[in-house]
Design goal:
- It is a single chain.
- By secondary structure, the chain is an alpha+beta fold.
- The chain folds into 4 domains: 11-31 and 93-221, Reverse transcriptase/Diguanylate cyclase domain (Alpha-Beta Plaits, 2-Layer Sandwich); 293-409, DNA polymerase, Y-family, little finger domain (Dna Ligase, domain 1); 420-498, no CATH class; 504-603, no CATH class.
- Helix content is 36%, strand content 17%.
- Helix 6 (127-136) crosses helix 7 (160-182).
- The protein starts with 13 loop residues before the first helix and ends in a 5-residue tail after the last helix.
- It binds 2'-deoxycytidine-5'-triphosphate and magnesium ion (2 copies).
- One magnesium ion binds at residues 28-30, 32, 120.
Length: 608
């Protein structure tokens, strides 16, 4: 500790630490995989149970833990200390994932932001709910549910003690509901921020809950012997800290900001100091669908290319099942390897990613599928990325391979989207907002826990990003063609179109034309579009004429055209008549004569 100026933990961070306004709950399921198995087969409850992936016991029930079985123990070691250990394979994650989703869905019924973290954890920001409850509760009668890390010495003037007590009652309610409805026991941590809520959660395991009050945040943090216990401190940061002899959280509290700044960026140094003091202002971000869907396979060592290919082939098959369940069309693929560094006797991960053409995926009867040829294309992409990560002229030793689809086409929503207009009800659920950026940057607070083998990943980490190849040029948009009843035509949500081929850039342009407005299609005569069209009475006449396509250019599929809503037909016709007026529907009259290189005409190409 020679190079460090001592400093008290509270000296620089009093400002941040005075904000106790939030009430956050962190819930973690007890021995998750084991409980899923026990709920499925109650006879397993009374036995010591281990969940096996490869030669590892990834978790065990609490009965087995009595014998000293720990997570990630080798099966052989586990059987030595508990010969009666009942082992169940945990290689198929399907049921665990399903249980995880049920818990997440249940927690959403409290109508608070819920952030899912990995398979068995969720943060819930109950700040507003607590405020609501406080309106009807008698403050003096509010008691704390469960345990407390340490009794508060005096009442905090901001009222956080009362709020956290109410939050502890809500946590208790949530845990009971999860148990009553799904059969899982859980632990909860309650605090004014995510960091403390997560860290205090396992304080009384299993099936219990603990609250930590803000005044004890810094003291609570000193109970952690390793800086690595802080969720957002990864192995690299920990290594850098340890190299400066900052090993425990107390060490981190004591080291001066100036010393930290010599080794980390200013922001990072401040962040590390805040974390060590139990401070964290990262918000609970409502989870949506995962940013990435991935699988990893770990093994002792693989040193032959053909074996690597085999591993990737197996992973790809499983990954495609997950993607099919998800339903979105992937547009980016990442390959991860963990290389064994023989000299350093250690392993480290590297990854590369590339864009994937959405045309590899097709939708058959509403299900995302990949043809044999598509799978071969994916395999060759994977192996190309592999070749970039590994110098095949030298020997290599891998201990893990991973595959993930890291980006998906999103449906564009909102009034300005033509996709919204056309796509609501058709079987292609996922369309066209191809982004070029690779937003896989680490979240400011990455609480995710790593899993050792064959795990799914909800990725927030930043891998090395392969320079993007050219944007996939064409996006095929395929839907069943059928006749439409009058009502269906009137309702854009029911519209079914034949095959249109749009490329992504073009689609953006189309959406810019704001053809999507339902209001317009439902009330065409009174629409603002009409006002803008005041100089183009011919066009308006076409609208009045209804859906005939006698004037359509020959390349237009009339059936498709007639299936389009009136407003869109009107705009297309306007452009066919006067291509230079492609902006007619939205722009002011003075723009009418401006020739535009991209018009809707270009996007309307015949289907095959
Ligand atoms: N898991 C895994 N590999 C790990 C850690 C966990 O595959 N290294 C899986 C198995 C766990 C699940 O993730 O059941 C949840 O992880 P937890 O760390 O929350 O562990 P458990 O829920 O099993 O036990 P605990 O009661 O300690 O929360
Ligand atoms: Mg757990
Ligand atoms: Mg967990």
């Amino acid at each position: 500790m020679d190079d460090r100026n001592m400093e008290t933990s509270s000296s620089t961070f009093t400002e941040v630490s005075s904000d106790h306004s939030k009430s956050i709950i962190h819930i973690d399921v007890d021995c998750f995989y084991a409980q899923v198995e026990m709920v499925r087969k109650p006879e397993l409850r009374s036995l010591p149970l281990g969940i096996q992936q490869k030669n590892i016991v990834v978790t065990s029930n609490y009965e087995a833990r009595k014998f000293g079985i720990r997570k990630c123990m080798l099966v052989s070691d586990a059987l030595k200390i508990c010969p009666n250990l009942k082992l169940v394979s945990g290689e198929d994650l399907h049921d665990y994932r399903a249980a995880s989703n049920k818990i997440f869905t249940l927690l959403q019924s409290w109508k608070c932001p819920v952030e899912k973290l990995g398979m068995d954890e969720n943060f819930i920001d109950v700040t507003n709910l607590v405020q609501e409850k406080l309106k009807t509760l008698n403050v003096t009668s509010i008691t704390l549910s469960g345990h407390v890390f340490s009794e508060p010495s005096s009442e905090c003037l901001c009222g956080c003690h009362t709020r956290l007590k109410v939050a502890s009652q809500i946590a208790n309610e949530m845990r009971h509901k999860i148990y009553d409805e799904l059969g899982f026991t859980t632990c909860a941590g309650i605090a004014h921020n995510k960091l403390l809520a997560k860290l205090v959660c396992p304080f009384k395991k299993p099936n219990d809950q603990t609250t930590v009050f803000p005044e004890h945040g810094a003291t609570f943090m000193t109970t952690f012997q390793s800086v690595r216990s802080i969720p957002s401190i990864g192995s690299k940061t920990a290594e850098a800290l340890i190299s400066q002899k900052i090993i425990t959280v107390s060490d981190l509290q004591e080291v001066s900001l100036d010393v930290l700044k010599k080794h980390f960026s200013g922001d990072m140094a401040v962040r590390l100091k805040s974390l060590s003091a139990g401070e964290d202002n990262t918000p609970v971000k409502q989870s949506g669908r995962p940013q990435s869907i991935g699988l990893e396979d770990s093994f002792k060592t693989v040193s032959v290319k053909s074996e690597v290919e085999e591993k990737f082939g197996a992973l790809l098959q499983r990954l495609l099942i997950l993607v099919r369940e998800d339903g979105r069309i992937p547009v980016s693929l990442r390959v991860t390897l963990r290389k064994k560094d023989v000299k350093r006797l250690s392993s480290h991960r590297e990854s590369r990613q590339c864009q994937v053409s959405p045309s590899i995926f097709t939708i058959n009867s509403g299900t995302l599928t990949v043809t044999e040829a598509g799978q071969q294309k994916l395999m060759s992409m994977i192996m190309r990325l592999f070749n970039k990560l590994i110098d095949l002229s030298k020997p290599f030793h891998l201990t893990l391979v991973g595959l993930a689809f890291t980006k998906f086409q999103e449906r564009m929503t909102g009034r300005s989207s033509i996709v919204n207009y056309l796509m609501n009800d058709i079987s292609v659920q996922s369309v066209l907002n191809i982004q070029n950026d690779c937003d896989t940057s680490a979240s400011s607070m990455d609480y995710s826990a790593a899993s050792p083998s064959s795990s799914t990943t909800t990725d927030l980490s930043d891998g090395e990003v392969e320079p993007s190849p050219k944007k996939p040029k064409k996006v095929n948009w395929i839907a069943k063609r059928r006749c439409l009843s009058k009502e269906e035509v009137a309702s854009p949500s029911k519209l079914k179109v034949g095959e249109l081929r749009l490329n992504s850039k073009e689609l953006e342009k189309v959406s810019e034309l704001r053809l999507s407005s339902r209001d317009r299609s439902l009330t065409p005569r009174a629409s603002p579009a009409k006002d803008n069209l005041s100089d183009t009475s011919d066009t308006m006449k076409d609208v009045a004429d209804g859906a005939n396509c006698d004037d359509c250019p020959s390349y237009v599929d009339k059936e498709v055209f007639s299936a389009l809503p009136d407003e869109m037909q009107q705009e297309l016709k306007a452009m066919w008549k006067n291509p230079s007026s492609s902006e007619v529907p939205r722009s002011s009259p003075r723009n009418l004569n401006k020739a535009k290189p991209n018009t809707l005409l270009k996007y309307f190409v015949p289907h095959k």
